[in-house]
Design goal:
The structure is a homodimer of 190-residue chains. Chain A has two domains: 3-84, Winged helix-like DNA-binding domain superfamily/Winged helix DNA-binding domain (Arc Repressor Mutant, subunit A, Orthogonal Bundle), CATH 1.10.10.10; 95-185, no CATH class. The first copy, chain A, contains seven helices and two strands, in the order αααββαααα. Chain A has helices spanning 3-13, 18-24, 37-49, 73-84, 95-102, 112-137, 153-184, and strands at residues 53-58, 66-71. In chain A, α2 crosses α3 and α6 packs antiparallel against α7 (153-184). The longest helix of chain A has 32 residues, at 153-184. The first copy, chain A, is elongated, with a radius of gyration of 21 Å. At the A-B interface, α1, α4, α5, α6 and α7 of A face α1, α4, α5, α6 and α7 of B. Chain B binds a DNA duplex (30 and 30 nucleotides) through α2 and α3. Chains A, B: Residues 92-183 form the Transcription regulator PadR C-terminal domain. Chains A, B: This is PadR family transcriptional regulator. Chains A, B: Pfam families: PadR, Vir_act_alpha_C.
Chain lengths: 190, 190
Amino acid sequence: MALEHAILVSLLEKPGSGYELARRFERSIGYFWTATHQQIYRVLKRMESDGWVDVRDVPQQGRPDKKEYSVADLGRAALSSWLHDPIEPESVRHDLAVKIRGAAFDDPTALIREVERHRLAHRDRLAHYLAGETRDFTGPAVSTAGAKAPLDAERELQHVVLRGGIAYERMMIEWLDDVLATLARFGPGR
Amino acid sequence: MALEHAILVSLLEKPGSGYELARRFERSIGYFWTATHQQIYRVLKRMESDGWVDVRDVPQQGRPDKKEYSVADLGRAALSSWLHDPIEPESVRHDLAVKIRGAAFDDPTALIREVERHRLAHRDRLAHYLAGETRDFTGPAVSTAGAKAPLDAERELQHVVLRGGIAYERMMIEWLDDVLATLARFGPGR
DNA sequence: TCCTTATATGCAACTCGTTGCATAGCAAGC
DNA sequence: GCTTGCTATGCAACGAGTTGCATATAAGGA
């Protein structure tokens, strides 16, 4: 399990509340690890009682107060230990692939609309990634302190992960085109 | 949840026992949906009591008897209904991507060995897929009955799913090379 | 004033998935 | 005779993830 670790990484990149984390899990880090707010609050509680994170009450005006979490030494150590622990290449869950194989026993052409929907979703996500890349990773590297940083690890590594997302979406779009061409070879009905 | 559906597809492709299904989930369908034997036996029980599958005791010689499952009408209907139900594009879980972003707060170069391990695993899987493609999808299309089938849906759809696996592995290998090049730009330690 | 929306946090129940363990038949080798 | 290994099925406990619901502050519009 690695939700704790995804949260640690996100909090190291920038401290924040459970609510803010939940929003980040809808974009950014969420492209590579999903979580709902309920899960995040529950895990944050556990991380707090384990001493992995520190909490600070932050009064706000115009909106409810929040609890801002930041990574404690124990959390940093836990992340480091996880990083040094080998993990197995991910176990996959591709509903769509199962559906495509299953379509052989139903009407294959009925899947076309579904595959097109997925293709659109991937096209949108690709556009979103590319926009983010242009926004955040073009122009000179500037560290958060404003000083020139020739090798800003945080930025470089975020960028390579984003490039992975871009490559994945491009691959998916090409493959879904292949799937559509294959499905189109079958006549309607069976 | 779709383990039921993955099992239905696999049983439609060929009836078999829980044990045999578990082995298929280590290859073939398992490349796109993972499951352990405990999970499979539990779900098969439920599917049986729901009338989705039929069971037949098959005595064997030289080994324990087995229960052979095959898809019942209710199961076929359930699969069909699932196929017509739109699903959301998958939620992703990429430990490695989280690790790479986390490495910015530790020693980035310490991840190199781990990334190389993953690269090897993907290279092996690619080789495995390519061998399977050569074995099963070259030469003339021949249906199970031995007759020429100009449009064998089952075979065509299995092939396009396999091509997806191949494209995925190729993309991953290229990306991991990119990751390795990025990590190499950081000196040892920090 | 009421309704909606956004911020912000949380509980409870349930399902799904993983891990560890248990059992049993039979073959092959030491 | 004993151990190892493969086939074959299963239980129990736990941990992770999902779904539905609940609560509270406050801004903005109908």
